[in-house]
Amino acid sequence: MGRTGTTRRGALLAAGAAAGGLLTACSGGDDGDGSDTRASAAAVRAEKTLRARSARTSHDVLRHYDAVLERHPDQTARLTPLRGAVARHVTALSPPPPEKDESAKPKPSASASPSASASASRGTPVGDAGDTGPMPSVNADPGTAVRELAAAERRAADAHAEALVHAPPELARLLASLAAAGAAHAYLLTEGPSS
């Protein structure tokens, strides 16, 4: 009569095959092509691009504030707090400076550029989203100029809300906050109390 059921030899062979399969599966995930590394690098590049685009969007609004304040200094009390918030948005979106070796640190130049000095005195971050291009045109009527500024805030809020769909979680949260702040600024500029 033949044996039925599992024998010790059969059990050992099955366990050995299962262990061999596990070892193969664990080591088979990396076939040496670096696909995980490439995917990670692509995600980092995409985030940097999205962050830079969003920083430019906020920087454009910041430049619009500066143009309105220059043309209509009587709006300073009303616009300065909102401008300060937008300047912080640009700073929050700007990528952190790369880590550098202290021995390779460049020495500060004796003369700073006039635009950098002016930006620093107003609290404007200087960096990748620096001043480029002509200043936005501003209407001679203060009320119209402020309404145009509100429209710029709305466009930026919409751009941030659209960008957050493609952003990784941390950047998406930041963009959602900036979109909400831009919408609130637009409200304050059009419906809120004026000074």
Care to describe what's here?
It is built from six helices and no strands. The model is unreliable at 17-31 and 107-129 (pLDDT under 50). The chain has a domain at 43-94 and 138-195. The termini are far apart. The chain has 195 residues and is mainly alpha-helical.
User: Can you count the helices?
Assistant: 6
Q: Please report the distance between the alpha carbons of the first and last residues.
A: 104 Å
> Share of helix among residues?
55-70%
**Biggest β-sheet strands, sense, barrel:** none
Order of helices and strands: HHHHHH
Low-confidence stretches: 17-31, 107-129
Features:
195 residues
What order do the helices and strands come in, and which of them pair?
Blueprint: H1 8-28, H2 35-71, H3 76-93, H4 114-122, H5 142-163, H6 169-190
Task: Describe the structure concisely for a colleague.
With 195 residues, the protein is mainly alpha-helical. The protein has helices at residues 8-28, 35-71, 76-93, 114-122, 142-163, 169-190. It starts with 7 loop residues before the first helix and ends in a 5-residue tail after the last helix.
